[in-house]
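Researcher: I'd like a candidate sequence for this fold, 51 residues long. If you have to choose between options at a position, lean toward the conservative one.
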């Protein structure tokens, strides 16, 4: 590959990463789950210790 093609892909990749971060941070996604819910594929009772 020639240098201009590699540099173009390099620059485009940086803009795509910035765009991806922007989209993730500005997404309106909401959930009712908290860190106490742990993971859905490996459920645990709670983070709090039970007596």
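Model: Candidate sequence:
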């Amino acid at each position: 590959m020639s240098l201009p093609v590699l540099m173009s892909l390099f620059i485009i990749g940086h803009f795509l990463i910035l765009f991806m971060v922007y989209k993730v941070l500005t997404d309106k996604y909401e959930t009712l789950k908290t860190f106490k819910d742990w993971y859905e594929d490996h459920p645990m009772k709670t983070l709090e210790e039970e007596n």
